[in-house]
Write a structure and sequence with these properties.
The chain has twelve helices and ten strands. It has helices at about 45-60, 75-80, 85-90, 95-105, 115-135, 165-175, 195-200, 250-270, 295-310, 320-335, 360-365, 400-410; strands at about 5, 10, 20-25, 65, 140-145, 185, 205-215, 240-245, 275-280, 310-315. Residues about 1-10 and about 345-385 have low confidence and may be disordered.
C-alpha cells in the first residue's frame, strides 16, 4: 500500500478501507484520584491521551478506524462479576468525597471518584465493541486505548487500579453473542492478572498465559502467579504463568518465552481470537516494573501473535511512564498495520513529579504542547515486520530468565503435545 505524505500525517489512498480499529474516549479521563495532591497516583488520566496523541501525530490513526463505545450494561457485567460488586460500584456515583475515600480504603490499591463507575463501564465497553467488530470480520485487529485497567478485578471486588475486568467481560460477551468461543489471552503486563486467572481457572475455552514479576512483595502478592497454578478440572493446563523472579527482565527473556513456550502452545490451542492484556509496565524506564522491554520487542511479540491468529486485539492495562507507553503503543500499532516503523527514543526515567496534580485544562482533555517525541513516519525503518528480522531477535535471555521459562515448560509439558 503506497501512502501519500502530508507533513507528519499519512493520507490513506482513496478506496482503501481501514482494517485495524481502535477505541478511545476522552471521558475515560474523568476517573481520577481525589487524593492526588497528597498522593500522586501512577494510574494517571493522561495515559490514554499520550497514546492517542502519538498515534495521531505519527499518522497511524489515519490508517485505522475508530469504533464507537457504549458503556457495558448490567447484564454484561453480571456475566463476570457478582451482584454485590456491581451494587457497590453503583453506590459510588452518589457518594461525596469523604465517603469515596473511606470506601476505597477497603480495597487494595483502588481509588474512586463519582465518575469512576461510568469510566469503568466505558473502558469495558470499548474493548467489547472493538472485539465484536473483529469477531464478526468487520476489522482484522485492533488497539483498545482504555482506562481504568481491568486484569486485577475479581468476581467480587476491585483491586490493583482495576474496577471491572474488561477482558473477562468481553470474553463472556463474545462467547454468548458472537461466533468466537476459543480465546487466547496473553498478559504481558508486568503484574500477574490474578482477576483473569480467577475467572477462567476451570475453563478450557480460554487459554490464559501471563508473563509477570513474581518476587517478594511485588503486587498482587500471594501464590496465584506461581508456575504451579495450572488451572482446575477441565481447565487444567489452560493456565500458564511465566513468573520472573527479579527485576531487570528484558527483550531476550520475553522472546525466549515466546519462541519456546507461548507460540507452540498458542498454535496447538488454535484460538479463534487473541486478546492481549497489554500493559507496558515492563517497558524500559517504567518506575514500577523496573524491567527493560523495548518498544521493538512489544511490536515483535504483537507480530508473532498475529501470525498465530490474525484476529487480535490489544487492550491497555498498566504502564506508568508516559513516554514509554506512548512509544510502545506506537510500535504495536504499526505492527498491527504492517507498516514500516522506527522506534522512538528511550524514555527518561519517571519520577514522582510525572504524576503531579493535573491542571483543569488537562482534566478537560486539553494538553500542553510537547516536543519530546516526533515520530519518523515512513523514515528508514529499523525493521519491517513483513520482510526483515528485528534487531531485538539478537537479544539473549538471561540465565535466570531462561531457567524460569524452562521450568514452566517442564511443568506444563504434560498438557501440550508441542512441548
Amino acid at each position: 500500500m503506497s501512502l501519500e505524505r502530508k507533513g507528519t500525517k499519512a493520507v490513506v489512498p482513496a478506496g482503501v478501507v481501514p482494517k485495524v480499529g481502535y477505541v478511545y474516549d476522552v471521558r475515560m479521563k474523568d476517573h481520577y484520584n481525589l487524593n492526588e495532591v497528597e498522593y500522586p497516583h501512577p494510574e494517571d488520566p493522561r495515559r490514554i491521551y499520550w497514546i492517542y496523541d502519538i498515534l495521531d501525530r505519527s499518522g497511524c490513526l489515519q490508517l485505522m478506524r475508530w469504533v464507537h463505545i457504549q458503556p457495558v450494561t448490567d447484564t454484561q457485567i453480571l456475566r463476570t462479576h457478582s451482584r454485590s460488586h456491581l451494587a457497590f460500584l453503583r453506590t459510588t456515583e452518589l457518594m461525596e468525597k469523604p465517603s469515596l475515600i473511606a470506601a476505597q480504603r477497603k480495597y487494595e490499591d483502588v481509588y474512586l471518584c463519582a465518575l469512576s463507575q461510568y469510566c469503568a463501564r466505558l473502558s469495558a465497553g470499548g474493548l467489547l465493541a472493538l472485539c465484536n467488530e473483529v469477531a464478526r470480520g468487520h476489522l482484522h485487529s485492533g488497539l483498545a486505548i482504555i482506562r481504568p485497567p481491568g486484569h486485577h478485578a475479581c468476581q467480587n471486588k476491585p483491586m490493583g487500579f482495576c474496577l471491572l475486568n474488561n477482558i473477562a467481560i468481553t470474553i463472556k460477551d463474545l462467547q454468548t453473542c458472537s461466533p468466537v468461543q476459543r480465546v487466547l489471552v496473553v498478559d504481558w503486563d508486568v503484574h500477574h492478572g490474578n482477576g483473569i486467572q480467577e475467572l477462567f481457572y476451570s475453563d478450557p475455552t480460554v487459554l490464559y498465559i501471563s508473563l509477570h514479576r513474581y518476587d517478594e512483595d511485588f503486587f498482587p502478592h500471594g501464590k496465584a502467579g506461581d508456575f504451579t497454578q495450572l488451572g482446575k478440572g477441565p481447565g487444567k493446563g489452560y493456565n500458564i504463568n511465566v513468573p520472573w523472579t527479579t527485576e531487570g527482565v528484558g527483550d531476550g527473556d520475553y522472546l525466549y518465552a515466546f519462541r519456546e513456550l507461548i507460540l507452540p502452545v498458542a498454535r496447538e490451542f488454535a484460538p479463534e481470537m487473541i486478546i492481549v492484556a497489554c500493559g507496558f509496565d515492563a517497558a524500559v524506564c517504567d518506575p514500577i516494573g523496573e524491567c527493560n522491554v523495548t518498544p521493538e520487542c512489544y511490536a515483535t511479540m504483537t507480530a508473532m501473535l498475529k501470525d498465530v491468529c490474525p484476529k487480535i486485539v490489544l487492550s491497555l492495562e498498566g504502564g506508568y511512564n508516559l513516554e514509554a507507553i506512548a512509544n510502545s503503543a506506537l510500535a504495536c500499532a504499526k505492527a498491527l498495520l504492517d507498516v514500516k516503523w522506527q522506534a522512538g527514543l528511550v524514555p527518561e526515567a519517571a519520577t514522582v513529579s510525572d504524576y503531579a496534580t493535573l491542571s483543569s485544562a488537562e482534566m478537560n482533555g486539553l494538553q500542553a504542547t510537547r516536543a519530546t517525541y516526533v515520530p519518523a513516519w515512513l523514515a528508514l525503518p529499523r525493521w519491517d515486520p513483513t520482510k526483515e528480522v528485528p534487531e531485538c531477535f539478537a537479544a539473549r535471555p538471561s540465565e535466570l530468565g531462561k531457567e524460569v521459562v524452562d521450568r514452566v515448560i517442564q511443568e506444563v509439558g504434560p498438557y501440550w503435545q508441542c512441548l
